[in-house]
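Below is how a single chain appears once it has passed through the pipeline. First comes the sequence as given, then the structure the pipeline wrote out for it. We keep one example in the README because the format questions we get most often are answered faster by looking than by reading.
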Amino acid sequence: MHKFLISSILVLYMIEVKNLKMVFEVNKRKIPVMNNLSFYLPEKGIYFIEGKSGSGKSTLLNLIEGLYKPTKGYIKINNKRIDSMTYEEKTLFYKNEIGILFQSFNLFNDLTLKENLSIASLIKEDIDENIVKRYLAKFRLSDKLDQKVYSLSGGEKQRLGLIRALINNPKIILADEPTGALDNDSSIVLMEELKKISENSLVLVVTHNEELVNKYADGSIIFLEEGYLLNNVLKDNPNENLNIIKNKKKVKERIKFYFPLLLRNLFKNIKRNVFMGLSVIFSLLITIFSFSFYININNTSKNLIYSYPNYNIYEVYRSFKTSINDSSLAIEKKEKIDNMELMTFLKENDFNNYIIKDNFDYFFKNNVINIDGNTYENIVFEPSFELMDNEIIVNEAFISSYIKEYKEGITINFKSENEYSAYSKVINDEIKETFNFDINFLIKEVSKEFNFLSTPKIYYSYSFFENYLSLTLASNFSSLENNKTTYLDLLRKAENNDPLTSYSSYLFIEKYDFSRFNLFIDNEENIDDYRFYNDSRTIISSFKDIINTLFIALIIFIIIISLTSFFIIFSLTFYSYLSSKKERAILFLLGSNKKSIDLIYVLEPLIIYLISFIGGIILFNLIKNPILNKINSLLTLNLTINPSIFFFLIIFIIYFLIILFSALIPLLVSKNIDIASELKEE
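Resulting structure:
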C-alpha cells in the first residue's frame, strides 16, 4: 500500500469522530467493537474503512449514519453531534445531507425502477430531473424505467441504488461494500463514478478490497486486531477554532403521498383488502338498512292504524282483577260500563265527539259462513260505521284463506244459532231464547289494511245489523211475556254483567279526536279500572314493540360487526406495519419523516373504506327496491327508503372514525424499529 501525503491546505472538516467507544451487550455479555477511535474527514474526497469481516467497519458506518448511539465519545457531522440530534434534525440529515448506498441494494423490488426513483424524489424534494436523466443514460438504465426491480441484474440494481443515493447531490455518500455483489466491470463503473463525485462531496466506503483502496482512496481508516491505522486521515483537527456554518433548513411538515408504494400495497394485499372491504360493506349495509327501516317504519306506523276499517272503534269495559288463592296470579273479570257513567267520564276529560253503541259480538258466536258452496266456521266479525245495508269488507287474509280469486259481486251467506237464558220479571221465571240468523252479505271491497299478525276478518255494517236486530222478534220472550220483544230489546235490557252484552260497549271516536284520545288512554293513571280495547291499535303497538326490540338487537349486532371490522382492520394493519419494517427503515434513511411513512399504512385502510363505502351505497341502491317490495308485500305497507345526504354523511363520518382509529392504534402501540438491524449488511 502506498503512502498518502497529507495536504497542508486549510480544509473544512465534514466528519469529526472523537474518542469513540462502542460496546454491544449480547445475552448479558459485553462485547467491545471499537475503543478510543478519533479522526477527521474533510468535506470532499473518497475515504475507505478497511478491515476483516466482523472487525467493526459497518458498525462505524452505522454510528456515522446515527443508527447506533456510541457507548462513549461522539460523532459530529457538519459540526453537529449525531447522537444529540432531535428527530426533526435527524430527518433533515437523512433527507439533505447524506446519500446511502447499500451492499444489498435495499430497493423496493416489486416496484418499477421509475417508481423507486419517484419515491426518493418525493422525499428529497426539489430534484433536478435533468440530473436524474443524465445518470440513467450514463448507467444504461433509461430503457428499463418500467421494469420491475426484481428482474434487474445485480449491477443494474447497484447502479439504481447509486442514482437514488445521488438524486439530490448530498454532501456525504456512505457506501457499505458497494461492489460486493458486482462483477469486475460493474465495480469499475461504480467506483469511477464515486471517485468523480468525491471531487465535490465526501464519499466514505466500507470495503475489504485493498485494490479499490490503492486505486481510488484519498485516505483510509484500517481496523486492525491491535487497533486502528489512519492513512492520510487526521487524528486531530488543525482548525479547532474554525466556525462551520450549520444548515438552517427545517423539515417540511407537509404530508407526502407515496402513490407507488400505496398502490403496490393495495394490490399486494389484495385478498386481505377484499376481505376488509367486504366486512365494511356488510357493516354499512346492515347499518344503513337498520336505521332507514327504523326511521321510516316509525314514521309510517303513525298512519298504519288508519288502514283498518274499525280503527276508531273501541271495546269499552270495566276490569276487575281477583287473585287466586292469595297467589301472585289473578283473573280479570269484565263488566259493561253504564252508558251514563261512561258519558260522564268522557265529558270530564274533555271528549265530546263520540258515539256509544251496544256490542253485538254475542250474536256472531258459533257462526258458519258459506262461500260458493264451501262452509267455514267461527270467522271474526268486526263492526264498521262507514258501511251501509248488507255490505261487508273483508281483509286480504280472508281472501287468501277462503276465496281463490276475488271478483266483484261475491256474496257470503252468514248463519248463526246461539242460545240465551235470562230471568223474566213478568213471569217470575227464566226464559230461554235461541237466536237464529241467516243473512246474505255482499263483499263491497277488500281492505288494504296492515298485514302484520293479520287474521281473516269480516267488517260488517253496524247500522244494518242494528236494524236487523230491531226487526227480528225473540219468539219465546214475545210469547211468554205477551209483548213484542226484539233481539235488540233483549240486548238493551240486559244487565251490565249479562253475557249478552259481551260485558262491554262500543265507543266510536271521531277522527279529529282520535290521536288525542289514544294519548289519553296510554296514560293508564287517567282511566282507573276502565279498559279501552282496539284490536288494530293492539296490533300496531305489538308491531312497534317488535320493531323496537329488533332495532335494539340490530344496534347490538351493528356494534358487534363494527367491533369485528375494527379488530380485522386493526389486526391487518398491525400485521402490515410489522411486516414492513425493512421498507420503513429504507424510507427513514432516505429522509422521510415518521408521519409520512405512517401515512402510507393509514391511507391503505382508508382508501379501502372509501371504495367500500361507494360500493356499499351502489349495492344499497341496487337491492333497496327488491327488499322494500318484499317487505311491503308481506306487511301491506308503503315504505319508501330515500336516506338524505346528511344521513349518509353521518354514517360515513362514524365509520371513517372507526377505520381511522383502527388503523392508527397499531402505529401508536408499535415500537420504533431498529433500523440498523433491519438493514444489517454484515
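The chain has a mean pLDDT of 86.

See the next section for the split statistics.
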